[in-house]
């Protein structure tokens, strides 16, 4: 891990979750997300310290633990630091049972507590809203880009850099995990259009090795769209015969040779549910309840 300048005062620290860094004139920094755990966040702060930078602000793009897992470490080791999040994501960040609750569909088994529950209280200091926001006398654009998470936001800096969280997936991620974790398909499709309309020169994803220019990000949008279209076609074809949500995931797993552990199973099942919701609301599919099983089929 090391600190890389993107342009001007905007940097990032590449890692399992890329961390955005904006350097203010007073040598304080704003982080875009905080990493997955104390170990990653400690390394981030050590790297910043080597460059005589101090953490003062964090904006969380969304609530998932690989983006917020270092919040409490920052609060503990940098007194007076301020954490921002959108109104919807604040709810999930401060109540870490909510994410595994909706993922599992009821009170979750202990496995989920181990993977998603934070060991310390995780409070958001200030709610941040879409539009231009001033932090430490610098302006940042906050952009609503939901789909992967309900209240996910992007952050644009004056250096014409925008951090996109998990609103897009890199080609490496799609090749490795082609069935993406999505909360809302309609909002995800709208987010593709939003990103395509953004007037920035540098685009940063939370997971991926590249910094993208405008032409490259538009190409990546099409790759993401095409990947979703592929799964639309697969699901609609499979629903020529009635299938439960679990049946659909089983057949998708076989057709696409997906290798799922328990966590990935529930991520994928949630994505299947998001596709079903989109298709049902578009009146493309119908449902039937029979002997305690909920079937969906093309109508």
Keywords:
Arc Repressor Mutant, subunit A, RibonucZ/Hydroxyglut_hydro, six-stranded mixed beta sheet, 299 residues, seven-stranded mixed beta sheet, Metallo-B-lactamas, Metallo-beta-lactamase, Chain A, 15 strands, alpha/beta, 11 helices, 2 domains
Question: Can you describe this structure?
Answer:
There is one protein chain. The chain has 299 residues and is an alpha/beta fold. The protein folds into 2 domains: 4-228, 4-Layer Sandwich (Metallo-beta-lactamase, Chain A), CATH 3.60.15; 230-298, Winged helix-like DNA-binding domain superfamily/Winged helix DNA-binding domain (Arc Repressor Mutant, subunit A). 40% of the residues lie in helices and 22% in strands. The protein is built from 11 helices and 15 strands. Strands 1-2-3-4-5-6-7 form a 7-stranded mixed β-sheet. A hairpin with a 2-residue loop joins strand 14 (285-290) and strand 15. Helix 10 (245-255) crosses helix 11. The N and C termini lie far apart (52 Å).
Secondary-structure-derived class: alpha/beta
Count of individual helical segments: 11
What is the N-to-C succession of helices and strands?
Answer: EEEEHEHHEHHHEEEEEHHEEHHHEE
Oligomer type = single chain
How many strand units?
A: 15
Largest sheet: 7 strands, mixed
């Amino acid at each position: 891990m090391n600190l890389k300048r993107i342009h001007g005062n905007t940097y990032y620290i590449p890692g399992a979750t890329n961390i955005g860094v904006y350097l203010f004139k007073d040598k304080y920094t704003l982080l875009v997300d905080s990493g997955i755990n104390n170990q990653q966040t400690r390394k981030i702060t050590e790297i910043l310290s080597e460059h005589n930078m101090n953490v003062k602000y964090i904006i969380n793009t969304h609530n998932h633990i690989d983006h917020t897992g270092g919040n409490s470490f920052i609060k503990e080791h940098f007194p007076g630091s301020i954490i921002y999040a959108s109104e919807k994501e604040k709810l999930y960040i401060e109540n870490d049972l909510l994410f595994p609750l909706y993922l599992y569909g009821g009170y979750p088994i202990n496995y989920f507590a181990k993977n998603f529950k934070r060991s310390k209280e995780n409070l958001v200091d200030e709610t941040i809203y879409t539009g231009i926001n001033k932090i430490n006398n610098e302006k940042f654009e906050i952009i609503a880009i939901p789909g992967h998470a309900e209240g996910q936001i992007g952050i644009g800096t004056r250096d014409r850099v925008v951090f996109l969280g998990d609103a897009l997936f890199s080609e490496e991620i799609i090749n490795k995990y082609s069935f993406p974790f999505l909360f809302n398909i309609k909002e995800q499709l709208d987010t593709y259009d939003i990103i395509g309309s953004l007037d920035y020169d540098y685009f940063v994803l939370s997971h991926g090795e590249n910094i993208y220019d405008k032409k490259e990000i538009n190409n990546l949008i099409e790759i993401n769209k095409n990947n979703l279209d592929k799964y639309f076609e697969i699901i609609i074809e499979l629903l020529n015969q009635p299938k439960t949500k679990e049946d659909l995931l089983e057949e998708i797993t076989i057709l696409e040779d997906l290798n799922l552990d328990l966590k990935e199973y529930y991520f994928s099942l949630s994505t299947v549910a998001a596709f079903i919701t989109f298709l049902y609301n578009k009146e493309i599919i119908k449902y039937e309840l029979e002997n305690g099983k909920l079937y969906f089929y093309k109508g």
